[in-house]
Amino acid sequence: MTTEYTGRGDPARSLALLWRTGERASRKGKPDLSVDRIVRAAIEVADTEGLAALSMRKVAERLGVGTMSLYTYVPGKAELIDVMLDTVYGELPLPGGEEEAAADTAGKPDGGWRARLEAIARDHKTLYHRHPWMLQVGSSRPPLGPNVTAVYDHSLRAVDGIGLSDTEMDTVVTLVTGFVNGAVRGAVKAEQVERLTGMTDEQWWWAHAPFLSKVMDPRRYPVAARVGAAAGEAHNAPYNPEHAFEFGLARVLDGVEVFVRSRAGSASPEGGA
Questions:
Q1: Is 4 helix (H, G, I), strand (E, B) or coil?
Q2: Distance between CA 186 and CA 25 in Å, rounded?
Q3: Mean pLDDT of the chain, nearest integer
Q4: For the range 238-242, what are the long-range contacts, defined as Cβ-Cβ under 8 Å and sequence gap of 24 or more?
Q5: How many Å apart are CA 138 and CA 81, to the nearest integer?
Q6: Mean pLDDT, residues 85-102 taken together
Q7: Closest CA to 190 of 231, 238, 157
Q8: What is the pLDDT of residue 31?
Q9: How far is CA 57 from CA 26, 74, 123, in A?
Q10: Which of 20, 52, 128, 229 is in the most buried spot, having the most CB atoms within 10 Å?
Q11: Quick one: signal sequence residues (predicted)?
């Protein structure tokens, strides 16, 4: 699987592209190009053909122009990927703004922040399924563009004012979004396997079940035999991505809730603060 990384381009050029501070006008007689048109065409290539197919030549073909004409606007593929990622993050709904940050949760502070984090997780899940190539972009050095910044700010607002330090707020947001990334990655791989084999997980499971029952000795593998059979019967498959996401998200939020309560306790007089 192809993996690309953000932050590999020239910093000054990448930031100029991300914030559109240095966009050049089309040359006389050339097609009406722009950074936005090029980026949208690149996203379409990645959406329909996969990240491995993405190249400056492929984007130029989709736009019906010569490859060299793209370099008037985008220095190269590294910078293009930065802007692509920032652009699709702009599709996330970011309601509330300042009012959201100041909103009172009507005596349910835990339910308030938990509901907000859950909504953020589900929005990210939807975005990853819409653009699966995002899961192939390593972004430990994120593109510092307007949309990525806005999403980060919005996510932090979900846990602002609940007793966490700034570093803890950042870590909680990273934990939740990291879980979503991993969970959806598994779901996308399951979808890809189904397309490649032409067989659903349910069909695969029932095709193997008769033979498995003959070779699986429950006396040798008692727990695996019992639990595997129960899970297989429940999901009609060895793995259910949707169940895994729902279960995992709930447990992650449960853990965050325990941590938030512990921080509140340590800050109270009874907790010795």
A1: strand
A2: 43
A3: 86
A4: 238/201, 238/204, 238/205, 239/186, 239/190, 239/201, 240/201, 241/183, 241/186, 241/187, 241/190, 242/187
A5: 11
A6: 76
A7: 238
A8: 56
A9: 19, 13, 32
A10: 128
A11: none
- How far is Cα 65 from Cα 154, in angstroms, rounded to an integer? 38
pLDDT at 30 > cutoff 80 = no
CA distances from 111 to 12, 243, 256, 261 (A): 42, 22, 12, 12
Query: What is the structure's pLDDT at 272?
Result: 34
Instruction: Give the CATH class of 102-271.
Output: mainly alpha
Q: Among residues 1, 68, 8, which one has the least CA distance to residue 33?
A: 68
Domain boundaries, the chain: 4-89, 102-271
pLDDT in tens, 157-187: 999 999 999 999 999 999 999 999 999 998 9
CATH 1.10.10.60 fits 4-89, yes or no: yes
Alpha helices in the chain (DSSP H): 11-18, 35-49, 56-63, 67-70, 77-89, 97-102, 109-130, 146-157, 166-197, 201-215, 222-235, 241-267
CA 263 centroid distance within chain: 28
pTM of the model: 0.85
